[in-house]
């Protein structure tokens, strides 16, 4: 019935490679009881984007399909009325690559050696929903909690409830018990995540001149960047420095530099890419160094070390990690910032073809820095004079330079 219609459709519209093993696919989908998923996939035929997605996935290569079960679909009324959202949502449910090393049925989307969080890349690359660096497609993050695989950043727990490999194809199908939501903009992620309402409010209420000469919130300016890793101080971290904040906010230059020292510009660095001893360059051009030990992972900027207390909060244009301290670091190095941004941008071209688990060994973010490591105070003095020159001549230039960290 539904399945047969779906398969007939695929056979006529799409490449022969699927038709080759129609029987196996029919068996797999019906054995998994995925009639709603089959119906949704069939609806992809209605748009050119959907046809492109299906023909890519079905014409060869390894993909892992996270197929919501019928109960999950029955609760997703908004999908039915919006074809673009349907295509993009289904694209977010298809991971690039195979995550299972054996042909046998398993619920595991990862190997035992994976880091706590496992990150894979989906097929979602519509710029209406994802603006990562290098046109990378959006990531999906999951973890194992009490022997159950759970997807992160979802309003409710979504788990894998069954899986199968379709013989004769590169396709693994994992049945999941919910529909994954696509990561929203960084400002809405911050407004919604646990412990990040202070920074959300601060970014939303601080107006700065944007590159086109109009005033805009820092939140909107950050949302417009491609590839941002934000180390977001928690609400309690902000309350501990509350006496410094008004002073800082009164000086846009200092405020912007402090904020930049919480950001890696041009690179979306997931927790799996942060290893003991890794060293990235902040958007202010200063080192962000990482230490992992039995009590957790820590990040240092200037003289302040913070513990990373939540990771891999995905956004449309990057990722947020929550930290338990504010880096009140006004040091900056513009040439180190541009050089790090430039090398991140060139490394990012590889991301579009990335498959499998995203980890530190994958071709991902790299950092480079030509920063001289002089003492804090002499560095600050040099930066301060550069900053005040800019500040006097053109606040528009300094702030947009400062926020983007790349344009000079
Ligand atoms: C899991 O999938 C297999 C086929 O791969 C099927 O035989 C079995 O009934 C499914 N179990 C559930 C609980 O859906
Ligand atoms: C699927 O798309 C093809 C090509 O656009 C069209 O010929 C066919 O009628 C469509 N089928 C359905 C069921 O919409
Ligand atoms: C692993 O990730 C889960 C979900 O984010 C978190 O609750 C747990 O504390 C993490 N465990 C470790 C050891 O980091
Ligand atoms: C915010 O979180 C709530 C509960 O976790 C969820 O229902 C809602 O959809 C989220 N809103 C956004 C904009 O992500
Ligand atoms: C897939 O092939 C393997 C061996 O290649 C076989 O053991 C397994 O039963 C097949 N699965 C299905 C669903 O036919
Ligand atoms: C199709 O799948 C069956 C098992 O389901 C397998 O025996 C057969 O080799 C597959 N055919 C092709 C052409 O790969
Ligand atoms: C930003 O502030 C405006 C008005 O102050 C408010 O309406 C909006 O909800 C805020 N947005 C976020 C993401 O906090
Ligand atoms: C931007 O804000 C500044 C400071 O509040 C103000 O002087 C300026 O007129 C504003 N510019 C625009 C284009 O609104
Ligand atoms: C200026 O840039 C901001 C992004 O920072 C954007 O929201 C705004 O619409 C732009 N304004 C004009 C007039 O282009
Ligand atoms: C703003 O902060 C910078 C350091 O980042 C400092 O050099 C400058 O003097 C401050 N400006 C004012 C008006 O206090
Ligand atoms: C990080 O890189 C910077 C710039 O290359 C260097 O000065 C600093 O010593 C490095 N820190 C660590 C802990 O490796
Ligand atoms: C069903 C299954 O194979 N579960 C395994 C998934 O991986 C975790 C961690 O490696 C194991 O503990 C489960 O037994």
From TrEMBL:
GO terms for cellular component: extracellular space; fungal-type vacuole membrane. GO terms for biological process: macroautophagy. Gene3D superfamilies: FAS1 domain. SMART domains: FAS1. Residues 1-19 form the signal peptide. Keywords: Membrane, Signal, Transmembrane, Transmembrane helix. It holds the Pfam family Fasciclin. The keyword Nuclease does not apply. Residues 21-180, 183-327 form the FAS1 domain. This is FAS1 domain-containing protein. It comes from Lentinula guzmanii.
């Amino acid at each position: 019935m539904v399945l047969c219609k779906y398969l007939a459709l695929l056979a006529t519209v799409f490449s022969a490679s699927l038709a080759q093993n129609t029987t196996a696919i029919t068996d797999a989908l019906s054995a998994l009881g995925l009639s709603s998923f089959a119906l949704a996939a069939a609806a992809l035929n209605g748009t050119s984007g959907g046809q492109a997605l299906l023909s890519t996935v079905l014409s060869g290569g390894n993909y892992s399909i996270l197929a919501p079960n019928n109960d999950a679909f029955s609760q997703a009324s908004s999908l039915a009325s919006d074809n673009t959202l349907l295509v993009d949502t289904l694209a977010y449910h298809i991971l690039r690559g195979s995550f299972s090393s054996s042909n046998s049925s398993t619920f595991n989307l990862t190997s035992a050696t994976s880091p706590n969080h496992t990150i894979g890349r989906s097929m979602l690359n519509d710029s209406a929903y994802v603006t990562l660096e290098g046109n990378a497609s959006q990531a999906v993050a999951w973890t194992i909690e009490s022997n159950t695989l759970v997807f992160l950043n979802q309003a409710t727990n979504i788990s894998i409830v069954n899986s199968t490999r379709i013989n004769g194809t590169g396709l693994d199908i994992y049945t999941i018990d919910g529909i994954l939501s696509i990561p929203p903009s960084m400002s809405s992620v911050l407004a919604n995540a646990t412990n990040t309402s202070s920074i959300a409010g601060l970014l939303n209420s601080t107006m700065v001149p944007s590159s086109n000469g109009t005033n805009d919130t820092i939140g909107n300016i950050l949302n417009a960047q491609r590839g941002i890793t934000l180390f977001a101080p928690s609400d309690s971290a902000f309350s501990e420095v509350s006496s410094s904040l008004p002073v800082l906010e009164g000086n846009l230059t200092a405020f912007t530099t402090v904020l930049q020292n919480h950001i890696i510009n041009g690179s979306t660095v997931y927790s799996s890419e942060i290893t003991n001893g890794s060293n990235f360059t902040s958007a202010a051009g200063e080192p962000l160094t990482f230490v992992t030990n039995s009590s957790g992972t820590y990040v240092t900027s200037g003289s302040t070390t913070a513990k990373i207390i939540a990771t891999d909060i995905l956004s449309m244009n990057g990722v947020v990690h929550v930290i338990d301290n504010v880096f009140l670091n006004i040091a900056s190095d513009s040439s180190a910032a541009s050089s790090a941004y430039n090398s991140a941008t060139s490394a990012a071209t590889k991301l579009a073809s990335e498959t499998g688990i995203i980890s530190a060994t994958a071709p991902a973010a790299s950092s480079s820095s030509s920063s001289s490591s002089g003492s804090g105070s002499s560095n600050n003095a040099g930066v301060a004079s550069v900053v005040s020159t800019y500040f006097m001549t053109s606040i528009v230039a300094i702030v947009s330079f400062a926020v983007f960290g790349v344009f000079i």
